[in-house]
Amino acid sequence: MPALIRLDRQGPVGILRFLLPEKRNPYSTAFVEELVARLDEADRDDTIRAVVMTGGEHFSSGGDLVGFQSEIAKGARATAEMVEKVHDGGRAAYLFRKPLISAVCGVAFGAGLSLALSADVVVAAEDARLCEVFARVGGCPDTGSSWLLQQRAGAGIARMLVLTGREIDGRSARELNVVEECVPAAQVEDRALEIAREIAQHPMYGVEVAKRVMRATAECSYLEALDIERDSQSVLLCAHDFPEAMKAFSEKRKPEFKDR
């Protein structure tokens, strides 16, 4: 079976390329297995400091409904196990410890949209087509979209998009805070790579801790966030690259970071 995802490298940036844009990169169980494997490969490669996910002309049309039918026919247990396996893809993307940027062109429907939103930053084409398609097919959100969409756009916008099954373009997605940036389709990958390189120039351990703090504090109260920040910042302040930054500041010179 031909590969569905390839990990390329451009200097300190890894690029996860989905390889079936002509079929709109269906979110099949085979796709999930390769996604998990390629993310693990990128995680273990210390030369990669940030990763861009791209499907080329189409990000992903979502769940492979045709392929899923055989498992659904086996009953509730097999179906639940299949859904859990499908969730492994979003889980791996969301928990990926390095910065992750989605470059979205064409369609990002259902699980494909969930995968895009699991990244730290989403860059969408102006004419990209985003849709929480579940209501259209008699289903409810899965692959984390119910939570991810509310985190980005707020509860009201999330409910509207989920319950109507409304398709929006990249411009509307930016206006609704579903994505962070919106550019012409021809510029999407370049812009995502530009953001990845901007992040990759910083000390890596600090970036990874900062990402972990941001994810953790998004799910807690203000006072709990202060505790999380205190514990993480206390480590960084007295170890690794932060002391060099403070010393360089006092000496009015550019810091010489170890973690480059």
Describe what you observe in this structure.
- This protein is of the alpha/beta class and 260 residues long.
- The protein folds into 2 domains: 5-200, 2-enoyl-CoA Hydratase, Chain A, domain 1 (Alpha-Beta Complex), CATH 3.90.226; 204-250, no CATH class.
- 50% of the residues lie in helices and 15% in strands.
- A 6-stranded mixed beta sheet has the order 1-2-3-4-6-9, sandwiched between helices. A 3-stranded mixed beta sheet has the order 5-7-8.
- Helix 5 (145-153) crosses helix 6 (155-164).
- It is globular and about 65 Å long.
- The mean pLDDT is 91.
Order of helices and strands: EEHEHHEEHEEHHEHEHHHH
Domain module count: 2
Low-confidence stretches: none
- β-sheet strand percentage: 15-25%
Radius of gyration: 19 Å
The mean pLDDT is 91
| Alpha-beta content class | alpha/beta
CATH homologous superfamily caption of the largest domain:
2-enoyl-CoA Hydratase, Chain A, domain 1
Q: Which CATH architecture of the largest domain is right?
A: Alpha-Beta Complex
Distance between the amino and carboxyl termini: 38 Å
Summarize the structure.
By secondary structure, this protein is an alpha/beta fold. It folds into 2 domains: 5-200, 2-enoyl-CoA Hydratase, Chain A, domain 1, CATH 3.90.226.10; 204-250, no CATH class.
